[in-house]
Amino acid sequence: MHFRIPVLLTALFLLADAEPVFPRPGDSFGTPPDPVPGKPLQIAEVWGEQLRPPASCRRAVVNLVEFMTTATNIATELGDRVMLGTAVSMDLPIVFLISDRAFLLNAVEKRNLGNYIFGGGFLVLDTGSGGRVPGQSEASFRKMIDDLFGSGKLRPIPNDHPIYHSWFDFDGPPRGKESGFGEESGSEETSVRQPQSIMDRENGRPFLEGVFLDGRLVAVLSSQGYARNWSEGSVNEPQLKMGVNFIMYAVQRKLKSGAPVR
User: Which residues, 6+ apart, have CB-to-CB distance to 258 below 8 Å?
Assistant: First the structure.
């Protein structure tokens, strides 16, 4: 039986203190309520005229949605692909942009994406492959961020940030494609953990970076290639769990702002 949006999530939010907290795995809240009228939680991929995921990542968000539903018992579905030539619906609490190649956004695409972010949306940007040397797509994402927010807005996300505890507990982001599929390093609970530093000790680059506006995290840039891991499905559970945290953090932000979640 799956929970549905928005009534259940709103009720859970009202139970929280200053920071919205969702029931964690293993928490006991008695018998789950029957589904309430309403649509499942929707997330979406965003494509641009030059921006699109590689063939190896086409199932990434599909698999993540399926894992999200199973892991949280919150009915979740992948909405229609959003083309940046049109407005991005503010009903979407989070959208995913995945690319492993260089790209540029045109003026209309920048405006539509900017309207979504400054209207309360949340971005996850993924390079699709990972690697110890920054690739073309990473450079394109960084330029896109500079164009939208101004230079110098990206900074490392601290390991104690709430995004690492929005559903599953991590002491920092799990390694992605860069260190091989299915690697458990950095996952929660009993798995081998990464060093407390947010920096990759081999190349000095942050694992995850974010854009903060007025102290609020509004976008995550992953150069770890999580999308490739998600495409592989359940054999990459730590990376899928991190993806669930992305979604739950975005939903919590939207609830805290008072905006409806659909």
Answer: none
